[in-house]
Design goal:
Membrane topology: Multi-pass membrane protein
Subcellular location: Membrane
Number of strands: 0
Strand content: under 5%
Radius of gyration: 16 Å
InterPro entries: ABC2_TM
Number of helices: 6
Shape: globular
Number of domains: 1
Keywords: Membrane, Transmembrane, Transmembrane helix
Organism: Algibacter lectus
Distance between the termini: 42 Å
Length: about 120
Amino acid sequence: MPFLWVALAFVMANAMLGIMISTIFKNEAIAMDVSFVYNSPAFVFSGFTFPIMAMPAFNAWYAQLIPYTHFLNAFIKGMEMNTPFSFLIQPTVNLLVFFLVGYVITVSIFMFRNKKVAV
């Protein structure tokens, strides 16, 4: 049951990143292309097919920018290793940071486009 919170944070992070990308790009085709380019290396850079510790520094850094990396880390710890929820808190917080960053950027773009910026 604790893993449900990790899965919920993962879904929220991915949904918000998708909303953010579609807000940034007005054309649907370009938004889909950008999403594809951003998410296509997820399996390679997430540590699923190749360990992150053995990657070059830039690749390991890029892996941290993909929500799937943090979800996979929590999945392995929670489901495969059967660790307590306290070990899943950091990956869950990382996923929530993805959500919050996407939310702030999306709201900022909406406010800027509608010129209703209030101080």
